[in-house]
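User: Show me sequence and structure for the first protein, then do the same for the second.

Assistant: Starting with the first protein.
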Amino acid sequence: MAKFTSLKSDMFLGAFLLALALGALFVWIPLDIDTGLVERVRRRNVIGDTLAPTAAIILIILASGSLILSRSHSQPVASFSSGLRIFGYFISVFTVTLMVMRYLGPLFISLVNETSAAELNYRNLRNIWPLKYLGYVVGGTFLLSVLSHFMDNGLSRRRVALFFLITFMIALFFDLPFEDILLPPNGDV
């Protein structure tokens, strides 16, 4: 098997993200979301459920294309096994991120129930400030921090604070204009 000595880590990351984004755009969204980009409701156009994830995926496609085409100074991937190791790293990071996003809110409510006489139910509280942001913001901050550490071989408190702010602003961007939106993964809980 040929070695990929000319393959840069940025190119590998870009190709990986491009494959994930195309899979989400052409497989996940059509299979999971029933509405279109724009829907006609009571003689007026409203934003469909597909618009936000499609817009985000298009941005990911553009960013991954930029990574693939960039002439950065990243280190070359030494071999196919190194590429597989990087791929495994990304899979594990995304898996942990999704687990944090999915289970942090319910775990927090369980801890509150254990330490107090309360009988709280996460499903009833999942759209209450600040609980509705907990899993999304912590998981997003974790994801950005780990990927930044991977790319730059270092991480500062200032950068983690910036990632927290970015994730929180994205959550507010989707939550504030809409009255009854549930941030992921709260809709599935």
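Switching to the second protein now.
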Amino acid sequence: MNKRLNTIFFILGATAFNVLVAVVSFILLTLVYARFIMTLVPDSGRAWGFTLIFLASLAISFLVYRYVLKYFLNKVDVEKYFDPLFVKRNLKKN
């Protein structure tokens, strides 16, 4: 496989991982909320719990993705296996 294909597979895999972490954290936080907290909240305030759960799951997925990516970048030589996403183009000076 060449560098460009490695880069495409990495982006697709990292995106799938990020979405998976978001979905799993949403499900776990929803289960905790439904089991322990929902009974304590009045009926008029229950919808806000799911909004906060959604935002918290996005934050958790961002943090987990960031730490896993940092660990991956320390273990793998990025320049050897991946193509740069953004290339500086040489501009001609007049």
